[in-house]
Amino acid sequence: MQVPTASNVSASVAPHLVHGSSPVHGYIHSIETCGTVDGPGIRFVIFTAGCPLRCLYCANPDCRYMENGRKISVDELIPEIQKYASYMNASGGGLTVSGGEPLYQPHFVAELFKRCRALGIHTALDTSGYCDLPIAKPVIEQTDLVLLDIKSFDPKNYQKVTGVDLEPTLAIARYLNKIHKPTWIRFVFVPGLTDAPHNVEGLADFVATLKNVERLEVLPFHKMGEYKWQQLGYDYQLQNTEPPTAEQVQAIQAIFRSRGIRVV
């Protein structure tokens, strides 16, 4: 699949998403009003529609196509977000945009973040990093925290897991480090798929070079989205893969901690 670039992002979204249009619209899959796992504190979480990745363990395969989402404007979203301001302020929370892949709708997300920051609302971007860097930069500029999902480190394994190339994600990771943008790294541990020693150790060595990373999360594989694959008629290749045990997760965490990385 093609990495979102200056040419194909504008071609892949509706005309009203192009920079400079007013009002700015996007396509969203769903909203979680009091999320607690996608950034600090209590968060208003928006899941965008549309994603160029085809992760084998995706919990939201119904987010693949933007046209299957709900069209909504930034103007409509801001009042809804503000309703939860007291919860967010009291807990040190804010707004998180996840997906799907938020960078698939960069102008929409950048405008939403810009408006929220003007209101004093903390912003977090949950992304795979699969995007041409010039396209991602305006979004990153309006982001207080990046939750970067590095799904594998071996390039061939990354291709197998996601269906796309690894390098765009690493390029964004290096850029975030260069500009000292606060970042949390997320790694999904799938037994028999992403847990090869050279893969985990390679990722640990890479993350250890990034001085902006505040923490790393090892997310255990789960099957909560399997029923969606079945309903959509997609081939769920991990139906015989079992979630890792607590001991297995701790062993993976220990590899990252051995490099001096804060693991939570």
Any overview of this molecule?
- With 264 residues, this protein is of the alpha/beta class.
- It has a single domain, classed as Aldolase class I (TIM Barrel), CATH 3.20.20.
- Helices cover 36% and strands 20% of the residues.
- The chain has an eight-stranded mixed beta sheet with strand order 3-1-2-4-5-6-7-8.
- α4 runs parallel beside α5.
- The radius of gyration is 18 Å and the shape is globular.
- The two termini are 32 Å apart.
How is the topology of this model organized?
Layout lengths: L5 H7 L12 E11 L7 E6 L21 E4 H9 L2 H7 L2 E5 L7 H13 L3 E6 L5 H9 L3 E5 L5 H8 L4 H12 L4 E7 L7 H11 L5 E8 L5 H7 L13 H12 L7
Parallel strand pairs: 2-4, 4-5, 5-6, 6-7, 7-8
Antiparallel strand pairs: 1-2, 1-3
Helix pairs in contact: 4-5
DSSP E strands, number: 8
Can you tell me the CATH superfamily? Aldolase class I
CATH architectural name:
Alpha-Beta Barrel
The neighbouring-strand order within the major sheet is 3-1-2-4-5-6-7-8
Helix content: 25-40%
The parts where pLDDT drops under 50 for at least 5 residues are: 10-20
Shape: globular
Radius of gyration: 18 Å
User: Given this structure, which CATH class is correct?
Assistant: Alpha Beta
Any idea of the CATH topology? Answer: TIM Barrel
In round numbers, the mean pLDDT is 92
Sequence of secondary-structure elements? HEEEHHEHEHEHHEHEHH
N/C terminus separation: 32 Å
Per DSSP, the total helix count is 10
How many structurally independent domains?
1
Overall structural class, as computed from helix and strand content, comes to: alpha/beta
Q: Give the amount of beta strand, in percent.
A: 15-25%
- Mind summarizing the main beta sheet? 8 strands, mixed
